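Reopening: structure tokens for the magnesium ion complex, inputs below.
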Amino acid sequence: MVKKIAIYGKGGIGKSTTVSNMAAAYDNDTFVIGCDPKADTTRTLVGKRIPTILDTMRENKSPVLEDVMYDGYNNTLCVEAGGPEPGVGCAGRGVIVAMKLLDKLSAFQNNPELVIYDVLGDVVCGGFSVPLREEYADEVYIVTSGEYMSLYAANNISKGIRKLNGKLGGIICNCRNVKDEIEIVNEFASLISSRVISVIPRSELVQQSEYQACTVLEMFPESEQADIYRELVSTIVDNNTFSTPTPMTTEEFESFFHKYV
Ligand code: ADP
Ligand code: MG
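Re-run output (same inputs, fresh job):
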């Protein structure tokens, strides 16, 4: 059965890095859908930026699948929703337009074994809830570090997941090397009734491969970092433990975080 997951998290926390490396680590067909207006999820898989659905549709009202879907490293199929021009319009609209087009073009009938949505999570906008709300994705994972703003965003995301009756599969700790990081993220996860399913170390191999528009998996396949992404994707593919998150109130969140400062 095809597994359809959405990865949410604060902007800049490492969602796209995690998604692209996970997809590169998984040997079966994987469909990667970038839903962040930054449109850079698939760059390291394809080796360059691909045209976004929104940009393509500005010039061509009825594109075919080949116009928007690109082959990437290790059996990945890559799509970027895209966003409006900076300063104009709604950031989440790309997701809505993209999903409609992908449905119309029967993009999901290629039978990928894994579908991954890379979704921004610190913007309160209906567009970003589409993968979950419209049941394109069955499971959600949240990427966070031990930093205040990232956990704050993660708590907000968990509110959205609860509201939409989503299934939270776990928390991915992408380390920024702050003090007590793993402890903080573990406690956060348990407070919202979830668990940490992976701890990804901060590694300079991520930047080195990113400069070459490559994943760590492609550029440093023998590295420990590559193994971490392999373990993560196999944990997610095998995971069948989910929870309904129990988000903290702002007061609860503040008192949780204050223990560590
Ligand atoms: P997001 O998609 O959440 O906005 P990105 O995946 O683009 O975030 O990551 C933001 C920056 O952090 C990138 O420049 C990336 O190279 C860096 N980064 C992400 N994860 C790691 C990591 N584990 N080690 C080192 N750098 C990382
Ligand atoms: Mg991103």
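Residues 121 and 157 are 6 Å apart (CA to CA). The first helix runs from residue 15 to 25. Marking as resolved unless the reporter disagrees.
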